[in-house]
Every structure is written in C-alpha cells, then in structure tokens.
UniProtKB/TrEMBL annotation:
Short name of one Pfam family: JAB
GO cellular component, one term: membrane
A biological process from GO: proteolysis
InterPro entries registered for this protein in UniProt: JAMM/MPN+_dom, MPN, STAMBP/STALP-like_MPN, USP8_dimer
Organism: Aquilegia coerulea (Rocky mountain columbine)
Transmembrane feature ranges: none
UniProt KW keywords: Hydrolase, Metal-binding, Metalloprotease, Protease, Ubl conjugation pathway, Zinc
Name this protein carries in UniProt: MPN domain-containing protein
Residues annotated as signal peptide: none
Metal-binding as UniProt keyword: yes
Length: 348
C-alpha cells in the first residue's frame, strides 16, 4: 500500500528533542523583536527577523506534535505569517531600490531625522554596545567583562577540513568570545575528569546584522562518556527569552573522544538549526591533540535533508547528502570577538 507523503511523519521522534511549545515561543519572540526593530526603523535587522520568523513558521509543521497542537495558536501564526511575508516583500523591494547597505539606511534615517520627522528615531550607529546585557536572576550567574582594547580584533574561524562552509552564505555573521569557550571547559572540568560529557546552551542577540553570543546557560543534564542530554528545555528558554536572547546553538565536551559530531549530536544540531539557521554546535575535545575545539553546522540543504528524513535513534550511521556536500561542516562566518562581554547561568 502506498502512503501519501503528506501523512508520513518524516520527522520522527529523533528530531523532536524540543517540545513544540518551544518553537511557538520562539515564533512569538521573533514577532516581539520585529516590533522593536520596526519601531527603531532598523530595516536591515527587521528583515533578518522577519525572514527567520517566516522560515521558522514554515518548518514548525514538521514537528510530530503539530497535528495535536492548539488550533488557535496555529491559526494565529498562519495569519501573522501572511502579514509578515507581505511586509518582508515590501521591505526587500525598498532595499533593492534604495538601501543596499546598513550605511545607506543610516544615511536615510539621519536625513529623515533632519527633515523634522518628530517621531523618527535615529537608529544606533554601527558602534556596538555589547555591555547592554544586564540582569538580575534567581540563578547563580557569573559575569565577565573584558577590557576593551583600542581596536576590535576579530579572529575569523577558518573553515578547514570538514567542508568549505559554502552552504552557509545566507547566514548572518556570529561573534563569540573565546573566553566563553575556555570558561565552559573550566566549569566542565569535574565531569571531564570523570569521563562524563557536559553541555551548555548559547544565547545571542542581533544587532546591525550580527548575532552576538553573550550568554552561556549550563542546564541540569543527564550525561555519559559519549552523550549529554539537557533537561527541562523550558527552564533554559525562560532564561533566554527573559533577556531577549535567541537560542543560537549549544556547546558540549568530548572528554575522551576526538573533535567530531556524533550521530546523536547531528540530530540535536538539526533541532537547533530548525529554530535558527545561524545556530552553531561547539565541540570541546581537550584530549584531541590535533584539534581541541570545533564550531560546526549541518550543511544546508545537504545535511539538513539527511537529518530531516532520518528516524533512527541512538548512535547510527547516516548516508551521505545527495548533493555531495559533507553532512556537517566548519562554520564559515563565526568570529572570535575579544571584546564581547558574556554571562554564564549555571542551573545545575
Ligand atoms: Zn558529541
Ligand atoms: Zn539519524
């Protein structure tokens, strides 16, 4: 008997690491953030957020709980999706006729301000205020403020052996502090010494076309020497959304294994990339003498298609993507930013 492809749940339980409610929460957060950028007349970042919202809402029906989810919420997002798609198309056509760069838009906004529009808000210049993350929290929080040198020195993480990152050209740049990775390793040390993995979740904000990873959340977790599962995703998400941060991926240790992405890691990463295409998977492998860390993504559409169709659980082999790309690759647009302030929430 042939089964209609529409009724087949191509996204089996292996890709339902996060509850569907989390995806809807992110969708609502994107709507809120779009309003902020709209009010600031920050068209470049508004377009990115609208694109991310439309992408997310079109992927949500893949989730196996979708058919049983609140009809009201689904109808609401169908309606918003239509409105925001129209807004995005209009903005894109404005951009193609006028502002090609952030600079063009700033000039445009400045002119508008000069022209006396009393309600116009001039958008911030390209100087990035990375110290804007302040909070009070019931969770233990460690804050690190790094001294700001005269000139920002960014190191580009070079894409190396596992791919050339070409499929990531539509992703926004991502900045991360190298000290965040080092401090994570330090906080993981007790587990690492016992040959147990540790995982953390990364939170970021978007400003002038760049996602800045400014928060590391170490959740309650179940861990073994070759796997690590965060518990209570809702608690993690609550910390992120309270600070208007987006889930931009995760970091975990391989205490005794080399620096690579296991099949379970690939499924976890698929769930993050479903939320935002910029999401990264950072693997810290202190005992790998050739490479002690890697910042990876699934190739898209090559790797994401393989993962979307895979219903296996546990460790299992994956077929090669049909377009010849590697299933995952080094991120091509992630930069180590020494000036980035970050915070750590240890929820364990
Ligand atoms: Zn792993
Ligand atoms: Zn699989």
């Amino acid at each position: 008997m042939e089964i209609s492809s529409v009724s087949v749940d191509v996204n089996g339980k292996s890709n339902n690491r996060f509850p569907l409610s989390l995806y809807f929460k992110l969708a609502n957060q994107l709507i809120k953030q779009a309003k902020v950028f709209r009010d600031e007349r920050n068209i470049i970042d508004l377009c990115t957020i609208l694109e991310r919202y439309c992408r997310l809402v079109s992927k949500i029906p893949q989730h196996s709980s979708y058919s049983t989810y609140s009809v009201q919420e689904k109808l609401h997002h169908n309606k918003v999706h239509q409105e925001l798609t129209t807004e995005l198309e209009n903005l894109k056509s404005q951009l193609s006729h006028g502002f090609r760069t952030q600079k063009d838009q700033e000039v445009y906004n400045e002119r508008k301000v000069e022209n006396g529009g009393a309600e116009e808000t001039k958008i911030q210049s390209s100087t990035i205020n990375v110290n804007c993350v302040t909070q009070s929290s019931p969770f233990p929080v460690l804050t690190f403020i790094q001294s700001v040198p005269e000139a920002v020195q960014l190191s580009h993480i070079a894409a190396s052996d596992s791919g050339d990152g070409q499929s990531q050209s539509s992703c926004q740049d991502v900045h991360i502090s190298v000290r965040l990775m080092e401090d994570f390793l330090e906080l993981a040390r007790d587990n690492t010494n016992k040959d147990l993995e540790t995982c953390g979740v990364l939170g970021a904000f978007l400003k002038n076309g760049i996602f800045y990873i400014t928060t590391l959340i170490i959740p309650k977790q179940e861990t073994t020497s070759s796997s690590c599962q965060a518990l209570n995703e809702e608690e993690i998400y609550a910390v992120q959304s309270e600070h208007s941060l987006f889930p931009l991926g995760w970091i975990h240790t391989h205490p005794s294994q080399s620096c690579f992405m296991s099949s379970i890691d690939l499924h976890t990463q698929y769930c993050y990339q479903l939320m935002l295409p910029e999401a990264v998977a950072i693997v810290m492998a202190p005992t790998d003498s050739t490479r002690n860390y890697g910042i990876f993504r699934l190739s898209d559409p090559g790797g994401t298609t393989v993962l979307k169709e895979c219903q296996e659980r546990g460790f299992h082999p994956h077929k090669e993507p049909s377009d010849g790309s590697p299933i995952y690759e080094d991120c091509s647009n992630v930069y180590v930013n020494p000036n980035l302030r970050f915070e750590i929430f240890d929820l364990r």
